[in-house]
Amino acid sequence: MNDAGGAVDEVARALNVADALGKADKLDDIALGLKELDMEHYDDEDEGVEVFSSRIGDLYYPSNDLDPYIKDKNDDDSEELEDMLINPTDSIIVCASTEDDLSLLEVHILEDVGTSEMNMYVHHDIIIPTFSLSTAWLDCLQGREKGNFLAVGSMEPSIEIWDLDVIDVVQPCMVLGGILEKKKKGKKKSIKYKDDSHTDSVLGLAWNKALRNVLASASADKRVKIWDVATGKCESTMEHQSDKVLAVAWHHHEREILLSGSFDHTVVLRDGRMPSHPGYKWSITADVESLAWDPHTYPYFVVSLEDGTIKCFDVRTAKSESTSDLSSTFTLHAHDKVVTSVSYNVSAPNLLATGSMDKMVKL
């Protein structure tokens, strides 16, 4: 009787608690819930159950539009992601700039070209350690068959190659040449350079589009070097000019032919197929600033000069001896100050652009 009385008391107490909560039938709900969980047989589950389901749709959706858990599919994050995407129809422009002692590589995107919606914006920028003097784009590197890379020359004797496809990159992916160590004994300083490095500022760079692993560099050390970016090594060094070499340019179609221009008032053509040949030399009237091959008239090249002129030469007039004091095919009195850059339009024959210290670009 005592046991029965105790059970009745427990039931009465439980009913009183449930009634106090205003849910007298809660015990039935709890009992039903426990029955559905079947806790008595919890440890008897099949051992083969998958902890991480492999069924597509449980955790993975091919796109955000198909994911029912993403309520707002047009949020700010989606817009930012769209801004970061580079479409096949976009044009990419890389600009080297310096402001307040901060040097940058700015990657600009030009979108919707030829439409009323045409727009240009900075996609991302890269902080570089020194003031840029020369740049050259290239599409391959050691261990990378395809990509977007920029070689940068500066007041340092090294050439840094930066990966433009990486956001927030903090260091170059390759360095060609440079200083190995510096020592100072009293007032004397000694510098040890890496093997085959330039020993002064790198003033000009040119990538060979036909031989994609080849990069040419021009330096204030009076040398021109040919680098293999697939190995990171210097393949050859040329010393055919007597002053700072400011510009180099590969021929568009004859992939072994290279021009170099110097402060010694000469332009030299060298053919990599004849390394022992001293090349062909044109004497000019002022310091060379830049060089460009005509992509439509293969034998012609132009040189921009410190005196504000542009001169065009025909390589077919070069003689077999190493020096050719020949007149130019034409001369443009383009600017009143130094003509720092010259560039042909590869799509429009005979269209040439010049940039000058007079703060103008002319066509």
- What is the residue-mean pLDDT, rounded to a whole number? 85
Structural class: mainly beta
Task: Characterize the quaternary organization of these chains.
Answer: single chain
- Residue share in helix: 10-25%
From the alpha-carbon coordinates, what is the Rg to the nearest angstrom? 35 Å
Strand coverage percent? 35-45%
Number of strands: 25
| SS element count, helices | 3
Q: Please trace the helix and strand order, writing H or E for each element.
A: HHHEEEEEEEEEEEEEEEEEEEEEEEEE
| Biggest sheet statistics | 5 strands, mixed
Strand order of the biggest β-sheet: 14-15-16-17-21
What does this structure look like?
- Helix content is 11%, strand content 40%.
- It has 363 residues and is mainly β.
- Strand 2 (102-111) and strand 3 (119-128) form a beta hairpin.
- The N and C termini lie far apart (113 Å).
- The model is unreliable at 48-59 (pLDDT under 50).
Secondary-structure map with pairings?
Elements: H1 2-20, H2 26-37, H3 76-84, E1 91-99, E2 102-111, E3 119-128, E4 132-138, E5 149-154, E6 159-163, E7 174-176, E8 179-185, E9 188-193, E10 202-207, E11 214-219, E12 224-228, E13 233-238, E14 245-250, E15 257-262, E16 266-271, E17 280-283, E18 288-293, E19 300-305, E20 309-314, E21 323-324, E22 330-333, E23 339-344, E24 352-356, E25 361-362
Parallel strand pairs: 17-21
Antiparallel strand pairs: 1-2, 2-3, 4-5, 5-6, 6-7, 8-9, 10-11, 11-12, 12-13, 14-15, 15-16, 16-17, 18-19, 19-20, 20-22, 23-24, 24-25
